[in-house]
Amino acid sequence: MFMHEEILPRVIFSPGKLALNLAEGLQRLGAEVTLFTPGPVPTRVRNVTADLSYFERELAGREDSYLDLLKKHPLTFITLARQVQSEVVAGALAAANRGEVDVVHIYTNEEDVALPFVQFCSRPVVLTHHDPFNFLVKYKNVFPKYKDLNWISLSLAQRRGMPQDTNWAGNVYHGLDEAEFEPNFEPKERYLAYLGRIIEPKGVHLAIAAVKQWNAAVRPEQRYQLKIAGKHYAGRKDQYWHERIEPELGGEVEYVGFVKTVAEKQAFLGEAQALLVPSVFEEPFGL
């Protein structure tokens, strides 16, 4: 994953958060952990980063930040990021072959580039994928080829996207640091919450329709407001936002923007009567 401290707080990037939680959790349990990432990240574990000098030279020439380039020229960003990610994977596998680590754990959201090279590692390699294995064309055309590697699913539902004879090393559900969030059993507001990416597979339009249908059928004091928090995309991907979501905003449906901090998420989720997850695809429930 292209993890960098300049990007993480400003985008929806659950895999990055989960990787940090996992690394620090393992260290608290006594494991010696090294986290290989493209750029520096806020972590207490040893962090090995890639050479970003050429990437940053390109950014300087364009007078862009990492996030600027991602927004304005996503294909260019992805091309440069994957070059760096290949170097990160190579560094981790080389460290294993030198005997510096006992096990390599690869998150394959972007590092599917690692799959052909796992066979050259002398130490065990396990792999976790955050999305459904059949969610994108590029996933469907590569993951089944490597079904014999050591896979860790994040839910039993996620396994349905891989061949039946896939080598599952285990199933490990994602978790959160329980100290970060507290349950609120007496919310003072009357709204339902949606938190996540605003894309069609996540079914935000269904949440809107459900709330409006409910409100039309009940007494005023029984009605709910729907509050939507998350990121919508620019360019072609923004069509869903402009045609299906934005025209519905106002009154009983409110877009609150991108909720960044833990405190903001605590307040947003804690005051909601319920969290809606109206996904219309094989949701693996990564986080």
Would you mind describing this structure in some detail?
This protein is an alpha/beta fold. The chain has 2 domains: 8-171, Rossmann fold (3-Layer(aba) Sandwich), CATH 3.40.50; 191-275, no CATH class. The chain is 31% helix and 14% strand. It contains 8 helices and 10 strands. It has helices at residues 14-28, 53-62, 66-72, 74-97, 137-140, 204-217, 239-245, 262-270, and strands at 34-37, 46-49, 104-107, 125-128, 150-153, 168-171, 191-195, 225-229, 253-257, 274-275. It has a 4-stranded parallel beta sheet, covered by helices on one side. Strands 9-8-7-10 form a 4-stranded parallel beta sheet, with helices on one face. β7, α6 (204-217) and β8 form a beta-alpha-beta unit. The longest helix has 24 residues, at 74-97. The protein is globular, with a radius of gyration of 21 Å. The mean pLDDT is 90.
